[in-house]
Amino acid sequence: MPDKPDLGADPSLLLVDDDEPFLKRLAKAMEKRGFSVETAESVAAGKAIATARPPAYAVCDLRLGDGNGLDVVEAIRERRPDARIVVLTGYGAIATAVAAVKIGATDYLSKPADATDITNALLARSDTLPPPPENPMSADRVRWEHIQRVYELCDRNVSETARRLNMHRRTLQRILAKRSPR
After folding, report:
1. Homologous superfamily of the 139-177 domain (CATH)
2. CATH superfamily of 12-123
């Protein structure tokens, strides 16, 4: 059984994810760590809980069936500016990580993340640097992430993105059509 971390005076935790088996497993694991857990499977349910009972901690999936998890992050931030919020996603990209942190998330983790990773992210002190990654991104992945970020900043306009990256539009289209490198 994991050690119970110091959660402070308010151990309330909101978990928002539309993957029900994952949500149940994570809720059970976080309860064992001492959190007082509430769960939601949609943006609407997450925002309702965030409005009625703003949690001290939150873990929110980025892509939910009824919208974007960042809407829940915003709702929590409005009611509880000191909340520690971790955004989870199976679609890790630097552009979405930046958006999550700008909107008020404390940290950003790619799935699959286990309860220990999530707890560490929730309780991390902002003045301490995280350890270097075990498996850093490859140069190809960094390039792909940069292209994706510029593409998003150009409102998904291929011609404008190609112009800004100084590459041929068809080359960019081929890159965008491929899956991300590991």
Report:
1. Homeodomain-like (1.10.10.60)
2. Response regulator (3.40.50.2300)
Tell me whether residue 104 is exposed, middle or buried, using C-beta atoms within 10 angstroms of its C-beta: 0 to 12, 13 to 18, 19 or more: middle
Token representation of residue 165? 């990256």
Q: Give the single-character DSSP code of 181.
A: P
Distance in angstroms (rounded) separating the CA atoms of residues 36 and 20: 18
Total residues belonging to the chain: 182
What tokens were used for 92?
């890790």
pTM recorded for the entire structure: 0.66
Q: What would the pLDDT profile of 50-76 be if each residue is shown by its tens digit?
A: 999 999 999 998 888 888 888 899 999
| Contact (CB, 8 A) for 140 and 181 | yes
Structure token digits, residue 157? 């306009």
- For 125-146, the pLDDT digits (tens) are 665 555 566 666 677 877 887 8
